[in-house]
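Quick entry between incubations.
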Amino acid sequence: MATTKIPEQKIILCGEYGVGKSSIFRRFANNTFITATGRQSTLGLDHYDKVYNVQDKDIKLQLWDTGGMERVASITSSYYKFSEAAILVFSLDNLTSFNTLSQHLLDVVTYAENAKIFLCGNKLDLQSSEPQVSDAEIEAFCEQCHNIISGVYKTSCKTGEGIEKMFYDIAYHLVESNRSRLELQTMDKHGFKISSNEESPEDSCLC
Amino acid sequence: MDEEYDAIVLGTGLKECILSGMLSVSGKKVLHVDRNKYYGGESASICPLEELFSKFGAPPPDESYGRGRDWNVDLIPKFLMANGLLVKLLIHTGVTRYLEFKSVEGSYVYKGGKISKVPVDQKEALASDLMGMFEKRRFRNFLIYVQDFSDADPKTWKDFDPNTQNMQALYDKFGLEKSTQDFTGHALALYRNDDYLNDPAVNTIKRIKLYSDSLARYGKSPYLYPMYGLGELPQGFARLSAIYGGTYMLDKPIDEIVIGEGGKVAGVRSGTEVAKCKQVYCDPSYVPDRVRKSGQVIRCICLLDHPIANTKDALSTQIIIPQKQVGRNSDIYVSLVSYTHQVAAKGWFIAMVSTTVETENPENEIKPGLDLLGSIRQKFVSISDYYVPTDNGLDSQIFISESFDATTHFETTCLDVLDIFKRGTGEEFDFSKIKHELGDEE
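Done. Structure below.
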C-alpha cells in the first residue's frame, strides 16, 4: 500500500547549559517533566518526530536535542545541518542565559543559514514579580537582530504552559514558508539516508 | 576534568570518534578530549575556504571562488563502500540518521595513458574498451564465476580450492591477460600493490564481491560520499558518544599521559588538572614516543573550475592508476567531489591525488594523476608521515590507532577500529547493545 510521505522538518534546540532544552524535548516527546534532582544532564536524548495538522496539512516536526555537548565543549557543526528551524532557549530567571543568546544566534546563522529562528523564554513558573529578563529587553534583542526572529514564546516545562502552543505556532510558520518555497526546492540540494533496507532509495537501473 | 573515567579518548579524528561512540554505548564512562578547537582532527573538513588557504600559507582566495563558507574541504580523501564496513557501522549505531549521502557518479581505471570506466558486470565487460574481443569473453566468464561463488558451497568453486590456491592460479585458470589482472586486482579488488597474487584467492574474490555488491546498492558506482564532507562522519559518532553519556572537551592541550603501577596508564594531565582513567585511546600525534614511522603518504588538493575530461562531466568520480601502468609499486588514486555535495561553491570541483611515497621527489610521483585533471586553479600539497603503534597496548592499556593510509575508502580504517576495540575490551563489539528507541521510533 502506498503511503504519502509527510515532510520532516528538523528543529533544533539551542541555548546555554541548564536552561531547560531537554525539558522542552521531554514535554514535546512524552509530555513529562523530571525535576532537577531526578536527572543528571542530558543523556540518551536524540530526536523525536511528531505530526501536527495545520490548515488541513500534516507536517512532521522532528525535534533535536543537543546531547549535552554544550556542557564543556561546543556543539558539532553537523547538529545544525539540514535544520528548518532553531529554537533559541533562555531561562527567564537567568539574565546570563539571555545575554549569551547572540553567540548561539551566530552559530545558527552560520551553520543553518536557512533555518527560521524562534526565541523561547523558559521557566516561566520561576519568574518572580521582578522579572530577570524583561519584555522590553526581549523586544530590544529582536530589533537588534534585524527582526530575523520569527516568533517569541514564554514557556514553563514544569507546568507545561505554552509548550504545545509554541510548537503548533512553529508548525504554522513552517507550513507557510514551505508553501512559498516549494517550487524553489530542487532535489539536487539533498542526498539520501542509507539504511539496512535492501531497496535502493533511488531508482537505480536494475540490469 | 578532575574525575575518574573508564576510558579517555584523545583526538576527535574518525577512528577515535567511532571508538568513543562504541565505548559509551558499551556502558563505559568516557572522556573525549581534543587539543584543537574543532572536531575531527585530520578527518575534519576545512571551512571556510580562507582557512584552507592560510593553512597552506597561500594568499587569500579571490572572489572567483565564491563564498568561503560554502566550502568544506577534506584533508584526507576517502569514499565509503556502499556495502562496506563503515556503512554497516553507521547503520548499526544509528549514526546514519545524522548524515545524508550521494552516490559517486563514476569509477574509472587508467590504462595506457587514458581512463576507462571500470567494468563490473557482464554487460559492461563486453562493452569495455579495456580488452580485446576474446579477452572480454574470458573476463566475462571470470565475473560470472565470482558472482556465483559462495564461501559455504564448494560446488561453486568449480574444481578450484580458493583457500589453498592463490589468486594468480585463478587468473591463470581463466586465462586472463596481465593487463586484465591489473585492473581487476587494483580497480575492483582495490589492492594497493601486487602482493595479493600470492595470497589465497578467496580474499580477492570477496573483495570483488564487495565492489559489485556495493555497486548494486545505489547504482552508478560502489562509492558514497556524505553531504558537507567527510568531517560530518566523526561528528556523527561524537554525538552518539555524547548521547550515551560521553563527556566532550575541546581546545584542551594534553601535557602528559600519566603512567602508574606496572607501566599501566593512570590518567592524563592538562596543566594542573589530572583526569584518572583505566585506559587511553588515541591517535599517534598524542603519543610520539609510542609510535614509529612506517612510510609517507602524499596528498594533493586541487581546486578546479571544471569536471575531469572523459568522465562524462561527472560531479564526483574516482580514478585508479594501477602501479604497473606508471612503473610504480603502489597505486595512485584520484578522487573528485564538487558543489553538488555542498563542499565547494557553485561550479567548483575538488580533486585529490594521493599515493604512498616511493621516491625522494614525491610531487613528481603524482604527476600522472595531476595530468588527468586539466587546468588546476589552486594546488595544495601535503606529505604526511604514516605512523603505526610500537605495541598492541595490552600492557600499558594505551591503544593507539594507525595514521590514515593512502587507500580511498574506509575499509582499513574500520578494521583498525574494530581491532582496537577488541584489544581494549577483550570482546567483539556487540551491536545489539545499541538501543534504537532513541527518539525516532514510534
